[in-house]
Amino acid sequence: MKTEDRPIPVNRIKAVLAEKQISAKQLSVAVGKNTTTISRWCNNKIQPSVTQLQEIAHILDVDVRELLYPTK
């Protein structure tokens, strides 16, 4: 598969968790979701809602825009 054919990841939750040294398990407890859901968010298999992104940003103490890849 060519690089340009690969989908661009939609969120940076996994990267921000690593930067903040917070585990997916800790995030799952904080947002009240199971670890499978967090894993799927981190691997961009599914995306959290805007409301969930805002909650995650608050928990991680980051601007919600830091959880998303820029489009431009």
Report what the structure shows:
By secondary structure, this protein is mainly α. Helices cover 49% and strands 0% of the residues. It has helices at residues 13-20, 24-31, 35-42, 50-60. Helix 2 (24-31) packs across helix 3. The longest helix has 11 residues, at 50-60. It is globular, with a radius of gyration of 12 Å. It starts with 12 loop residues before the first helix and ends in a 12-residue tail after the last helix. The mean pLDDT is 92.
What is the strand content? under 5%
State the shape: globular
Order of helices and strands: HHHH
Q: Name the average pLDDT.
A: 92
Task: State the separation between the terminal residues, measured CA to CA.
Answer: 23 Å
List the defining traits of the structure above.
72 residues; globular
Provide a compact summary of the structure.
The protein has 72 residues and is mostly helical. Helices cover 49% and strands 0% of the residues.
Chart the SSEs and their pairings.
Elements: H1 13-20, H2 24-31, H3 35-42, H4 50-60
Helix pairs in contact: 2-3
